[in-house]
Every structure is written in C-alpha cells, then in structure tokens.
Recover the amino acids of this structure.
C-alpha cells in the first residue's frame, strides 16, 4: 500500500492492548527507542517475533542495535509512560479495541483492509483538489 501511495503519511502509535502487562512494556521500549535513531528497528524486532522471556526481548533489542539495559530504564521514564497513557486514552475515546487500525480523513478502518484504505485515500485526494 505504501509503495503504491508514497504521499500517504503513516503515524504509528504504540497501543498496548494485547496481553496488557507485556504489551505495555514492549510499547515503552519502542517509544524509548525514538531518540536513539533505532525506533523502526526496535519496533519491528519487538512486534515481529515471539518474545516469551526477558532474554528474548533483550536479544531482540541487541539485534536492533540498542543497549537493552539503557532502553529498559528509559522505557520506565515518566515521559514514556505518559505517552503510553495518552495513546491509551485516545484509543479508548476512538473505540479502538484491536490493532492495526487506521484513520483516513477522520474515518476509522479496523484491521488491514487495504481496499478500504485505498478507497478512502483516493477520496481524500479528490476532496483536497
């Protein structure tokens, strides 16, 4: 979809709703990686592997190019935790109960319904003309 629509801007929100305890920890780690220049690598490593132990998480973080110990500390910072709370409140307000979700021109698209996304993006482009 993004290759076919290079003008589309995607904003990723770390929304920890699956396995809430572990999910919040992983969201915190991804958000903590924002300032390291390794956000995408950390996000992808954490959400594309089955992580069943702390050792698995730390191995994924190391493979993504960050120091796991430093990232765990930063993930618990008030700023990162406040960002998670803010995202959770936004998700609750929008009625989001699963991921992924997309919002195009104010319309919520549940799941990866690429045809619906394309239809909404096309309509938004026409509206912007």
């Amino acid at each position: 979809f993004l290759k076919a629509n290079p003008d589309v801007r995607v904003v990723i929100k770390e929304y920890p709703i699956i396995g809430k305890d572990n999910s919040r920890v992983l969201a915190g780690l991804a958000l903590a990686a924002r300032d390291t220049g390794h956000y995408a690598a950390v996000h992808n490593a954490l959400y594309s592997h089955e992580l069943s132990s702390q050792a698995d998480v730390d191995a994924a973080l190391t493979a993504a190019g960050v120091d796991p110990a430093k990232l765990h500390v930063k993930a618990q910072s008030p700023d990162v935790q406040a960002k998670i709370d803010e995202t959770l409140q936004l998700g609750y307000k929008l009625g989001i109960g699963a991921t992924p979700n997309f919002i195009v021109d104010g319309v919520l698209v549940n799941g990866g319904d690429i045809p619906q996304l394309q239809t909404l993006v096309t309509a938004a482009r026409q509206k912007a003309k």
User: Anything to note?
Assistant: The beta strands are 101-104, 107-110. The longest strand covers residues 101-104. The two ends are 21 Å apart (CA to CA).
